[in-house]
Design a protein that fits this description.
The chain is mostly helical. It has a domain of 74 residues: F1FO ATP Synthase (Up-down Bundle). The chain is 77% helix and 0% strand. Helix 1 packs antiparallel against helix 3. It is elongated, with a radius of gyration of 20 Å. The chain starts with a helix and ends with a helix. The mean pLDDT is 80.
């Protein structure tokens, strides 16, 4: 368990490096209306959100696929029905990750 926690922490830290490498705002960016102190950390927050969504989605999908394989192994005659439900579930899990990616694109333009 400790190994997984360290791996997740390392992945999140690597994803946050580009957000931490941003320079300070230029004179043009400072003159923009609505620039606040909290917008400096928006890139970091978006990186953590996308990383968390990707990790959560991957864990959810692997769990769903594993359970579906177990169910088909126990009842092979229900394989087609289980497969259909699994694909719908995987699509719903993946849409959550895509929503976070969309939010990152929308809010990414506000990173100072």
């Amino acid at each position: 368990m400790l190994r997984k926690a360290l791996a997740v922490t390392a992945i999140l830290a690597l994803m946050a490096v580009p957000a931490m490498a941003l320079e300070g705002p230029t004179a043009l960016q400072e003159s923009k209306a609505g620039t606040t102190e909290s917008s400096k950390y928006l890139g970091l927050a978006l990186a953590f959100a996308l990383g968390g969504a990707a990790i959560g989605g991957a864990l959810g999908q692997s769990n769903a696929i594993g359970k579906a394989v177990d169910a088909v192994a126990r009842q092979p005659e229900a394989g087609a029905r289980i497969q259909g439900m699994m694909i719908i579930g995987l699509a719903l899990i993946e849409t959550l990750v895509i929503y976070v990616l969309l939010i990152c694109f929308v809010w990414g333009g506000r990173v100072v």
